[in-house]
Amino acid sequence: MQFVKAYLILFTLLGCYTTSANSQEKGNALVRIKQGELSGSLELQKQVRAFKGIPYAAAPVGDLRWQPPQQAAVWHGTRNAQYFGHKCMQNPMFSDMQFRDAGTSEDCLFLNVWTPAKKAKNLPVLVYFYGGGFAAGDGSEKRYDGANMAKQGIVTVTVNYRLGIFGLFAHPQLSTDSGYQGSGNYTFMDQAAALKWVSENIQSFGGDPKRVTIAGESAGSFSVSALMASPLSRQYINGAIGESGSFLAGRLNSLEVAEKKGEEVAKSILSGLKLSAKDTISALKELSAQELLDAATKAKHVWFTANVDNYVIPKTLTQMYAQGDYAKVPLLAGNNSQEGSYQSVLGNRSATVENYKQALEARYPNIYGKMLELYPAKNEEQVKDAAQAIASDEFISLSTWNWMDLVTQTNSQATFFYNYTHVRPLMKAEYWSNSWKQSAARGATHSAEIEYALGNLDINPLYEWKEQDYKVSKIVQQYFANFIKTGNPNGKGLANWPMFKHNQQLIINNAPFAENVDYLRVRYTGLNKLKN
User: Fold this and answer.
1) Tens of pLDDT, residues 412-435
2) Which residues does the annotation mark as catalytic?
3) What is the DSSP string of 396-442?
4) Fold held by 330-531
């Protein structure tokens, strides 16, 4: 009897302890922001608190379609923030996107926050914008997970933003009604609204609103270049990271061109649905989000871009950066070594010097000789290198260089340029759905650095990660973390990364080293002249 009594007392005490522990754990994952209280979760062996699916703006639906984001509603009680929200309207496009969202919806303006479990104050903040060509992507993707950056003492935020026709559609009628005689660029209005939300709420998560670094890859990097210059967002930025791309070498339309395309888009959509309307925008707003996406896709209107809209982007970004009209903050940016493949230039031709010359002559009939001077080749390997460089530069690398070069010329803050060269391993067989056999890349392909930089190799199961990959990830993540914390990527145990003003970049692989960029300056100076 005494044994039973003692057991019951012990069981009761253990139950009290468990309840107390659970309450403590739940309390650690409670945060109050301006909109109300959030209940998050603990991750990474309870080292990190995560708060997901937080609305930073009202749902852009109904009359709010193609309007600037409006303030998010407040709520009563505690909002469950343990799950990701909806991703923005998009088609399935890229096989390497591993989503964890609640489904696709026009109601998608959510963000996610990861912060150290041990509560602190004035921590540096990283706000990351995903890539996907402004047509796909989501803040829930595994490769962008913020837990491993939070483990480094950085409050990390991923942001959903409107895509495609929902985010970048311009039209004369929308411009007339906007109040600033422009339209489109709702994508960047969303991103600016998210940065404003971060400025107003990040202290609740331990972050310092005066230590916010924005970052992104591909379309996310293009976004960073726009946000640094936009009057809507520049005041919220204290540092910037651009991984592959900017709006400083094309892809930025005039408002006139954007509106003309918008008229063509609207006409083809309504025609395809056999609808006629005196009020085009009202007719388009009456369509459901899925109907609009499907109709735009069927009419082959999938890809949209930014425009000089007199509001979000008042002038071309090249003008704004050249005039010093942007956020003067430290910038770290660069490219991957294989942003494009040599086959995209050579086609089915073998990589001989003669075939290379023929390919260039067909591709650039008016500037063939100049291109051959800028991208010379005397043997098969040089042909592959030169053709790969052309494909990479035309796709994205030139734009990153132009951005870095102009910022360095007009900014007293430190700038750092890189070329990422580590070759990612092959995709696991169970994830490879193409009919042809995989072959190793010649360099770091577009987007291959993301998991490494954010410390997320283990979260993304797609690839056959090796010991060398973890070594590279540790190096890249430490460079990025140092930059986010101090505005300088250098730190103990890392190869020195010189500032770009010294005419050097860092080659990033398992053994990083600095390289003089005179050869790139000659190439890009020549290429810019040919394009102008």
Assistant:
1) 999 999 999 999 999 888 888 787
2) 218
3) IIHHHHHHHHHHHHH-SS-EEEEEE-PPPPPBPGGG--SSSPP---S
4) Rossmann fold (3.40.50)
